[in-house]
Amino acid sequence: MERSLGNGTRRSRPSSPARRGLKAELRDLAWGQLNFLHTTDTHGWHAGHLQEAQYSADWGDYVSFAHHMRKKADDNNVDLLVIDTGDRVEGNGLYDASNPKGLFTYDIFKEQNVDIICSGNHELYRSETAEREVTHNIPNFKGRYLASNLDYINPKTGEQEPMAQRYRRFKTKNQGIDIVAFGFLFDFTGNDKNTVVIPARQVIKEEWFQNAIREDADVFIIIGHVGLRMEELKLIHRAIRQANWNSPILVFAGHAHVRDAVNFDAKAAGIASGRYFETIGWMSVEGLKTKEKNEVEDRALNAGLKFHRRYIDNNVLGMYHHSGLDGETFPTEHGRNVSAAISRARKVLDLDYKYGCAPKTLWLTRAAHDGEDSIFTWLNETVLPDVVTKKGREENARVAIFNTGGIRFDIFKGAFTRDSTYLVSPFISTLKYIPDVPYDVARKVITILNSGGHIFSGSDLDPRYMALPQKWAGKDLRQAPTMPGPRLELRGDSEQIRLSGDGEGSRDKDKDKDKVRTEGYTTEDDFGKDGDDTVHAPVPYFNVPNCIQSEIGFPEKDDPEKVDLVFIEFITPFILQALTFAGGIWPQGRRVVL
After folding, report:
1. 23-75: per-residue pLDDT in tens?
2. pTM passes above 0.85
3. What residue stretches are annotated with the Putative 5'-nucleotidase C-terminal domain (predicted)?
4. Is 360-467+544-582 CATH 3.90.1170.30?
5. Which one-letter DSSP state was computed for residue 227?
6. Rounded to 5 degrees, what angle do the CA atoms 273, 46, 107 make?
7. Got the DSSP string for 344-390?
């Protein structure tokens, strides 16, 4: 960003494509007895992506979409449930720019009729955020908000109590499917003092959980703000299997900001539905044997379970396609009202206020972290040298360390607005420093932070907290692994549009000559490479280290004897642990300067 490009006085709409989206090659959805729409890690992006047409639908459009999909379910005497798995806060001006934060977003979010919902870790970092979750979201979704391993310290009594109900048992509207549902958070340790996260390994031993997993349900549903391949979900899956060896288990995950699907066993599967309201996850299941229909006395005979998943690009053209409607018939009055509320909130918050213009696009993961098109190169070479200066110590050499997880999104060429500041980095974290650290010690810190995971294993510190959320995905995003073992049958292949040139057969090219393959997700999961509803041109993905380092004010020829070690407050415990290891025993009396 060039300071000379903006004086902070101009106002403009963001430079954005039309909200309709782009015509694209689409794969259809397959319906089953039980169907799901799933969002996760929306982080306040309820206005949609104003600079990316393929993800440009807003929460009002989603309200309309869910309405039409529920109607389709009713018309076909099947069921549809809507699920959200947390991290609804921090990451967009619609949430972060108001005072208090979330002034508008809680009311916007509640307009969607969500059937099962849970907390993410971002709802818990600050006590005031957790308090608003208790006073707003939990009442908004009373009876549907689940907190299987999350407690809250009641400010009136000081007592520790469940933040919401531990689990829910209910029957679906049309098929009468008997469901037992849980809502988990991964073993998060960064929460503020008014919440308590109970480790999953402890919860699965508790009496209430052991009783719940022995209930005679048709299907168990685990929703969780947990990476789909993280150990917590494996523990929960195994616990249910020990009590119910043959019951279907469906998992809805989040936290890792990826599209993914996992085959846990022949009758258990899970889906993770991306980030930032780019993705609406779709899951359907066929072959469930229900007590209500008395199809069989022994459900151990249930051997025909079929599973289907899709990752829906969040734009209205895709919604038109999947709902069978068009621009005239798709919008509902309810959805329009929600969209209007979003527009009003953005106007009140002045999110389109333009600070200046970005001369080029800077990528988070689409460029190598040390390449010229990387946002981290810009931070390293331009931003940190400019801001890491303390009066009276300007002549001191500095080593500045910034954790990559503090940056959350790309900077697009063009208008850089008030909203953009929150999209790129919504966090409140100050710079700290330790003065006069021997350079021979300080120079080792970055290597330890990026590759010394074993150094932190004896503490409560997990280096993944410093990095991008994708570090929690449990797989190399450039090449997804295939899990061995019994497989669910993947259904819906015959119903998918066959696309020329990608191994799926041929089709009339003239029919789709006006369609283009936009750049986007090309997901590979345990069930193959055809999960994305939109056939994309692939984009590069580069792994990013936990932290980057900038050396500032160094002598031209020789290394400095001592440096001021500067870092973001959030990573203070990691810095101190790394220093201890780098220097053998860190001298007593050294202190972090606030």
Report:
1. 789 999 999 999 999 999 999 999 999 999 999 999 999 999 999 999 999 99
2. yes
3. 361-576
4. no
5. -
6. 115
7. HHHHHTTTTEEEEEESS-BBSSSS-TTSTTBHHHHIIIIIHHHH---
Across the strands, what pairs with 310? 282
Tokens linked to 21:
């989206």
Q: Tell me if the bond preceding 100 is cis, omega within 30° of 0.
A: yes
The first and second tokens of residue 243, run together, are: 């009590």
CA–CA distance, 43 with 467 (Å, rounded to integer): 17
Q: Give CA angle at 180 (178, 183), nearest 5°.
A: 145
DSSP, residue by residue, 3-35: GGG--S-EE-------TT-----BPPP---SEE
Rounded-to-integer distance, Cα 170 and Cα 162, Å:
20
The H or E element spanning position 185 is strand 178-185
For the chain, domain boundaries: 3-344+474-538, 360-467+544-582
Write out the E strands in 186-267. 195-197, 219-225, 249-253, 259-265
Bridge partners for 538 per DSSP: 520
Token pair for residue 198? 């109970």
Q: Which residue has the tokens 């984009």?
A: 539
Q: What is the pLDDT of residues 386-398, one digit of tens each?
A: 999 888 898 899 9
